[in-house]
Amino acid sequence: MYYLRQVHLPSGSDRQFPFSLKALKELGTMSFESPITVFVGENGSGKSTLLKALAIKLNLPAIGSTDLESDETLDGVKTYGEQIITQWKDRAFRGFFFQAEDYFGFVKRLQNMDSEMKGDIVDFEKRLSGTGLKLAVGSILGQKEALLRKYGNLTEVSHGEGFLKVLKGRLQNEGIYLIDEPEAALSPQRQLALFSLIKNLAENHGCQFIIATHSPILMTLPNATIFQFGEKIQRVNYEDTEHFTTLKNFLNNPDAFLRHL
Ligand SMILES: Nc1ncnc2c1ncn2[C@@H]1O[C@H](COP(=O)(O)OP(=O)(O)OP(=O)(O)O)[C@@H](O)[C@H]1O
Question: How many CB atoms lie within 10 A of CB 49?
Fold first, then answer.
């Protein structure tokens, strides 16, 4: 089961961002024919731009310290996103947009929540006593424990370890998830762990994923529809992506590449 079936994308003057990007100039319709869609392509080809525009259109919350709506750097993308027309099979009511770099914003957000909760306890201790104090403090400690159970202590783990914990903590059944370059934080082993998490949620728990990635591992997610961004956006098999062929040729014969550098 997957939800977003098609998007009709706006067109406009190529002097204006994001229509100035070749891939997004006149895209027309993009169909999502499987629960996993992967965007691949060269740096600057427009993958993140389209992912953010979709997140804006779908009204998905961003994991991180800034919401997409209040991010002033996204004004051009917002206008574009708002003009997208969506076609759903069933409307998903949960989901998020997550970029690898937003992880630190998310940790900061948790730290701020923790400080606020500590402040609340100090405040309760000044104002309350007896059963009232016990109940109020108990409720705050319950919230702190729930966060700790869900994410662990993210200040004591590496970027990659924490990133995977946050994803595991936030992904739920029957959601739509837009994720930008998750591999940025992850070793090949952890990319495989993420691969297995996404595969399970897509195959067995009704989730839909749209992922922008440079990771040949994530491109091989089973039955993923891969769109390669370039002069235009084309559907490709993972064996035909530039990432896969370049990495494969390089690993087969590094010396041949290094001679030309
Ligand atoms: N607000 C903006 N105004 C004008 N140009 C922008 C704006 N935001 C991004 N761009 C340009 O749009 C192009 C596409 O950026 P985008 O982040 O979508 O690329 P990408 O395919 O995700 O690249 P990467 O793989 O490096 O993340 C870049 O050249 C970037 O400089």
Answer: 22
Q: Residues 114-125: what's their mean pLDDT?
A: 90
Euclidean distance between CA atoms 141 and 136, whole angstroms: 9
Report which residue type is found at 180.
D
Please give the average per-residue pLDDT across 233-237, as a whole number. Answer: 93
> Measured between alpha carbons, how far is residue 180 from residues 32, 215, 234 in Å?
17, 11, 19
Query: What are the E-state strand segments in the chain?
Result: 4-8, 29-31, 36-41, 85-88, 95-99, 176-180, 208-212, 225-229, 233-236
From the list 97, 105, 222, the residue with the least C-alpha distance to 167 is 97
- ipTM computed for the complex: 0.95
Cα of 61 to ligand 1 centre, how many Å? 21
Can you state the percent helix, strand and coil of the chain, rounding each to 5?
Answer: 50, 15, 35
78 has a pLDDT exceeding 70 = yes
Q: Residue 35 pLDDT > 90, yes or no? A: yes
Residue 2's pLDDT band, with cuts at 50, 70 and 90, is low
15 exposed, middle or buried (CB, 10 Å; 0-12, 13-18, 19+)?
exposed
| Global confidence as pTM | 0.88
For residue 136, the CA-to-ligand 1 centroid distance in Å is 47
CA atoms within 13 A on the CB side of 92: 26
Q: Residues enclosing ligand 1, CB less than 6 A? A: 17, 21, 41, 43-49, 73, 76, 212
